[in-house]
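Agenda item 2: alpha-D-glucopyranose complex prediction
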Amino acid sequence: MNPIGPDEQARAILRGNDRGGYTVPTAGLYPYQWNWDSAFAAWGFSTFDIDRAWTELETLFTGQWQSGMVPHIVFHRDDPGYFPGPDVWGTKTTPPTSGISQPPVAASLARWIWEADPEAGRERLAGLYPRLLASHRWFMTARVKDGAVCVTHPWESGRDNCPDWDIGMAAVDTSGIGDYQRRDLGHVDASMRPGKADYDRYLAILHFGRESGWNDAEILENGPFLMADPGMTFILLRAHEDLAAIGRALGEDVAEIEHWCQTLRAGADLMWNADLHAYDARDMRSGRFANNLSSAAFLAFYAGLDRPELERRLIRAWNAVRYGIPSADPEEPGFEPRRYWRGPAWPFLNTLIARGLHDRGKVGLAERLRAETAALIRSGGFYEYFDPTDATPCGGKDFTWTAAIWLTWAGRSGKETG
Ligand code: GLC
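Presented output:
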């Protein structure tokens, strides 16, 4: 038994991963500021240090590009233990960053942080508002096709190695890739990480972006990889709604944001795969569906979209494992319960899925997911992700967003605190 309770451990993890104004996802494996990890970190900090919470978001936005894009990694200071680092991305920005984005959860989490103490947060939120708006506008111009948010690199989706991307990845030419040295395998077991064939493709896509001078139009039209992502679309749709609520409270005109919501709501249909009975990623170059039931499909509820068929699909996948929500379909032969995004459950993603279930009135399911997530963390610790069949903790330990969602959600039943 650890003598200190899980709340205190979670706070210690956030403090321990704090590098001064920003938080790393975990020491070693991820030594920089990651976009959506940081938004969760901010939410976690808000439970005990509200000033530090706002600072986390403000620091993330110091990496925002002129175009409005908030990069997926901000390289505040050099770290030789990570590949691909700033020199490989070659974005020539200050501070150095990666050249792609990540799921835009920031507006939603900023809203939740603010709502917990509206008076105290108003000024900080007002400072962030134009930056959030610019980042949402960037998504709508640089990443939306036919009403769906498309990812130009699997890393942009935040679900790096998910089978969702396999058909798009298969078309990527890796002949010019050359030699390189991965660093992730020095931190965690290779059986849990993406394989070499995947990594070659990740780099080939990156090289295309760098050679285009990170030209968004060129990447969207001619890049080697472009897939409509249900996860990204649902997260942005929800974030638009949250940003509009913030805007209204600040007295801003939010007509533009409301229009974006309509665009994405209509676009979601493009990703409905009737054979799969679920939303599905889709290759925009070939029009083909991924035919993969991923946990991102269940973020539809979070975006306010509801279909009885989807709920049945959720229950079936969930009941096929012991702990929700598997990142890929447990009934498929390719299901790998411990490999990155090819089966494991991610506590932070569960938080968003549960929020959606709750908001759609599926309170019992939301509570079941909270209790199962709490059980994973209690038994295994604050790991990056978990095997949903037997609760084995996987990936990096002392993980920021796992600690953050313990403090804000998973550990909040009364019984679980302390
Ligand atoms: C991996 C995850 C991504 C996350 C990052 C840092 O790349 O797939 O979602 O942001 O790790 O935790």
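Discussion summary: The mean pLDDT is 96.
Owner for follow-up: CH.
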